[in-house]
Specification:
It contains 10 helices and 13 strands. It is an alpha/beta fold. It folds into 2 domains: 139 residues, NAD(P)-binding Rossmann-like Domain (Rossmann fold); 145 residues, Dihydrodipicolinate Reductase, domain 2 (2-Layer Sandwich), CATH 3.30.360.10. The strands form 2 sheets. It has a 7-stranded mixed beta sheet, with helices on one face. Helix 4 runs parallel beside helix 5, helix 5 runs antiparallel to helix 10 and helix 7 crosses helix 10. The protein is globular, with a radius of gyration of 19 Å.
Length: 308
């Protein structure tokens, strides 16, 4: 593989633009190509100022790149990821990894068969690592998360569970060694025609309870989490980047000022590139971890349908 990795991005929307600029600015990487079969003009407008090329076909695109980011709509994640893996390219997939477990399994199977790195873009892990939350030696007893955003035309191909809540589902799974046991949920359908608000309570097999409140119908943006441990509590306001900690275990009060948190996407992409080069044992979030979050998200959606 070339010393300077040639990055390629599938999808020329907002997230595709973010990823394209990270490849263009990453050490030891260049942006070589952008592919968007539905918006070729937008792909060209993104690629050209960054010194890259927009490609008309997937095959031409894959021949011109070494690593691929899939930043297309979620419903097309599996298609792009599997095509790249079959061409021998390591893949970074924006969250969610896929929209079905069968598609997630297909991605993981292809990656395992070809011994290729697959990363997924659950960037909130970067924030928790910088805070020191993953270093607390206790298992949490309870988690309460709120993730609210205003109505937007972005990500309407999936429910609020796969759009917003899945971030906090992944964090809960990362914080606890326990396995989800039961899920209860209620929600509302509004402007997208799908679930735009959802509240779920998940009970784990060790008694850990997690409550998730996600909405893309809110007037105000809210991002918060409360974690209860045997020794105390941690309350985090992700909007103001402030927290309160009574556990006795040290957390980094300046986490928001660390380079990793100031650009979590760059941190995540650079970790993926390091794993591809063999300089790191793994990306920040593996395909297997992303599939666990997807599994739980789909369980929440089934609970929403059952309670409708």
């Amino acid at each position: 593989m070339a010393e300077s990795l040639r990055g390629g991005v599938i999808g020329a929307g907002v997230f595709g633009g973010h990823h394209a600029r990270k490849y263009a600015g990453a050490a030891g990487a260049v942006l070589s190509g952008v592919f968007d079969p539905h918006h070729p003009d937008r792909a060209a407008a993104l690629a050209m100022p960054l010194g890259a090329r927009a490609f008309a076909t997937m095959d031409e695109f894959l021949e011109a790149v070494d690593v691929v980011t899939v930043a297309s709509p979620a419903t097309a994640h599996a298609e792009g990821a599997i095509a790249a893996l079959k061409a021998g390219k390591p893949v970074y997939v924006e969250k969610p990894l896929a929209i079905s477990l069968s598609d997630a399994d297909a991605i993981m199977s292809e990656a395992a068969r070809r011994k290729l790195v697959v990363a997924c873009g659950h960037q909130e892990r970067v924030v928790f690592q910088a805070m020191g939350l993953f270093d607390i030696p206790e298992q949490p007893l309870r988690l309460e998360s709120v993730r609210h955003g205003a109505p937007s035309q972005r990500s309407l191909d999936v429910s609020v569970v796969l759009d917003l809540m899945i971030h906090d589902l992944d964090l809960a799974l990362a914080l606890s060694a326990a396995a989800p046991l039961a899920v209860e949920a209620e929600g509302a359908v509004d402007f997208s025609g799908g679930w735009d608000r959802a509240r779920a309570e998940v009970t784990f097999d060790d008694g850990f309870t997690a409550v998730f409140d996600a909405s893309r119908m809110a007037e105000d943006r809210r991002r918060s989490m409360r974690l209860v441990y045997p020794s105390g509590e941690v309350e985090i306001d992700f909007v103001s980047r402030a927290f309160r900690n009574t556990t006795g275990y040290p957390l980094n009060p300046d986490y928001a000022d660390t380079p990793a948190v100031q650009d979590t996407l760059a941190t995540s992409v650079e970790a993926f590139l390091a794993a591809v080069r063999g300089q790191a044992p793994r990306p920040i979030v593996t395909a297997e971890e992303a599939a666990r979050a997807l599994d739980l998200a789909l369980a929440v959606e089934r609970a929403l349908e059952a309670g409708a």
